[in-house]
């Protein structure tokens, strides 16, 4: 059996949503200290819905495939739904990852959560500032 599923290979070779979102209002960057891989997620959220998402991943093929799949899974979804995204869902959508590569999908979950938290921090702050005015 091949080590990687067709889907992993497809998302690795043709990653979806690669790049930077200049007008992102939620950005999250995470890394794995052991392997040194880094993932950065950019979210453009309007009316509590993820209108657009892009990523930059400096990492292994599984990390690239996981980021790509994760962006596909949350695009167009409400923030509350994206918050529920787990690495398990990412790995399942990729038709599985080898056990020792599961941490790559964890990075995708963490990067999305970090970007959503950044968005929530910013909107809370803006809310408080407009209360003051
Ligand atoms: Fe670390 Fe893939 S080897 S994210």
The count of DSSP E runs of length 2 or more, i.e. the number of strands, is 3
| Name of the CATH class | Alpha Beta
| Number of helices, where a helix is a run of at least 4 consecutive DSSP H or I residues | 5
The set of bound ligands, ions and cofactors reads: FE2/S2 (inorganic) cluster
Share of helix, binned: 40-55%
Strand order of the largest sheet: 1-2-3
Contiguous low-pLDDT stretches (5 residues minimum) are none
Mean pLDDT: 95
CATH topology grouping:
Sufe protein. Chain: A
Q: What is the percentage of strand-forming residues?
A: 15-25%
The description of the largest β-sheet is: 3 strands, antiparallel
CATH architecture: Alpha-Beta Complex
In whole angstroms, the N-to-C terminal distance is: 63 Å
Spatial shape: elongated
| Count of domain modules | 1
Using only C-alpha atoms, the radius of gyration works out to 15 Å
N-to-C SSE string, H for helix and E for strand: HEEEHHHH
Main structural class: alpha+beta
Topology:
Elements: H1 6-13, E1 26-31, E2 38-46, E3 49-58, H2 61-74, H3 79-83, H4 87-93, H5 102-132
Antiparallel strand pairs: 1-2, 2-3
Helix pairs in contact: 1-2, 2-5, 4-5
FE2/S2 (inorganic) cluster (FES) is lined by residues 32, 35, 37, 59-60, 62-63, 103-104, 107.
Task: Provide key terms for this protein.
alpha+beta, Sufe protein. Chain: A, 3-stranded antiparallel sheet
